[in-house]
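Table 4 source record.
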Amino acid sequence: METKPARRRTIRRCPTALFVLFLFVPLGARARDFDEGPGRVRLKTGDRIVTLGDSITEAGGYQAFIRKVLDRSYPDLKVDIINAGVSGNKSPDMRARLQRDVIDRKPTIVTISCGINDVWHSFSFTPSRGVDLETYARLMTEMVRMLKTSTKAEIYVLTPTVIHENLNSPENRALEPYVQAVRDLARRESVHLVDLNETFNFVLHAAQSGGAPDFHPTSDGVHMKPSGDFLIGASILRALDVPMSLILEAAEPATPAIAADDSRIQYWGRWDMRSASTSGAITVNTGSTILIRFEGPNLTLHFSISHYTQGFPTLWLQVDDGEWRVVRPAEALAVSPADLSPGPHVLRLVVKGFREWENRWDAPLVGSIVFRGVTPAKGAGLLPAPARPAALIEYLGDSITEGVLVAASGDPGRLTRDDWPQASDGRRTWAYQSALSVGAEPRLVGFGRLGLTVNGNGGVPPAVRSFPFIYADAPIGALPKPDAVVINMGTNDGGAPQEVFLPLYRQYLRVIRGAYPDARILCLRPFNGAQEAAIRSAVDQSGDARITYVDTTGWIRPEIHYSAAGGVHPNLDGNRAAAERLAPILAEILKSSKLPEFR
């Protein structure tokens, strides 16, 4: 067997103290380790790091953080990082592709992250698709020995992280012997150990017992959020002797070059701009939109993400007339994966879907988008904001207006809560699309479960009380007044007696009219017909010629236009059909309002 350099025999662990900022102190580390400069790092010029793993590795999050630290602190080393992660892989899969995906790439450093699927697939599939402990330990050993024989690479084995944040779960208990097998392997083969399982366990226990029980480094119990990627990336960097100070400096969110309150950034929707110049612009509604004109190769968008305890909301992003792609808020999100062609460009960003049951009303606003601003790439700059549409239409409603389950396929009853943001779509709702079809600016205000007699999801008060606010203590007074308001309210009030619902709807109309004295108001019969008689009566009793009842009978055909039989959420075809029926009505009232575009 090849004799390894003495430094390879130093096994680096990553135990932690409390929570995140006190992580990654190697056992036996001396105090001066943190004061020594970059020269002591276990890296050399031209190093090639190959990260072998599963979907956690394939996602690229922890490599991106490692890249960020190395680019900031060691740019002259020109370290190459190759992602060799493949979703769903277990130890047999990684052993089978080790030669092609790792050895043939001539690495100088290899990290091996394997074991989560070997255990998790025993629980998530029937019959089990997991890998027994003996096979796992044997294949992990074979991979390490192949690397030692066929390369001169430094080898870092990573213990599996966690399977769900419940540390006493059956999955995590089943994971323990696999973790120990990696520790034993590192000691037996004299390779480096990065004990991620220990790190994640310590951090989660400290958080859960120390006032942050909702801290989740994963989005679904396995796949990493940015905080989880930070834990992995920082652990690897500490094993490479990168000083803690450099890691934490890189972990600080970058300050946008251009703050969110810049006049060249255009907002559609209800955005709280009171602290946009410092903490950012905030919205809690799907369909809320940002438009930016710029010139140059790229832009980086900056969001606050620390308030997300679990899964992130989804966003639509489009550059010029290109394909829309789904992205998630990030501390630094590049508008385009590659540099754009020279000349002017237009960015459109639309809030797609929230975890609607999470708090969107009272602080902390877990269900919110906090946009902090932009940083143009070298040679790029912002141009004046695009011209606003001639008309603004505000849509008031519930989950049907919000776009819940617009894109659901199959039986929505089989979707988990974590699937809902992906199946929801504020951009493709009947509301957003009907406004665009008449050249107007949409402003969606929809909350799941909301009604006149019931609270909405996320802590939203009933519609009469919630209407005057973006969220609690953030009034709408500074927002532009809409030219038209479309109300689709009543679906969730179907069980309320008419004598209760009717006076509330009349009050609702008075509150809206008080806020928007010049707007045309369209009161839609809910698509399922709930409270249609009371709504018609409220319109008739209003005595306001600029309030109109709109009969939607036949717009939505239950047999083809709902996300599930007997459901209430229109699918894509249902939203399209409703938008097509509403558009000519909107065009007519906007024309009668003598707006420049509609004369």
